[in-house]
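Before relying on records like the one below, remember that each one covers exactly one chain. Contacts with other chains, cofactors or solvent are not represented anywhere in the record.
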Amino acid sequence: MSPRRATCSPERSPPREIDVRTGASAARVSHESGQFAVHLDGDQALAAQRVLVATGRRTDLAALGVDAVGVDERARAIEDALADLDN
């Protein structure tokens, strides 16, 4: 897993570094003296003044009725299901 880094510079605040971690799992988060510590699985810890957490979601293909057109409703995504149809 390699983090992507971006620089954010809204007009009313100075530029700051943003560390984006995809596919990471946070084991726990703590906050002491105005500083967050995000402890990732694998014993890595990240320090930050602010933390933004975003999670994904899974498509419920069964609820969409995709089996009616031959798509496996157990697939994790439409792209996966369509790839299976090509094979």
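The CA atoms of residues 7 and 58 lie 29 Å apart.
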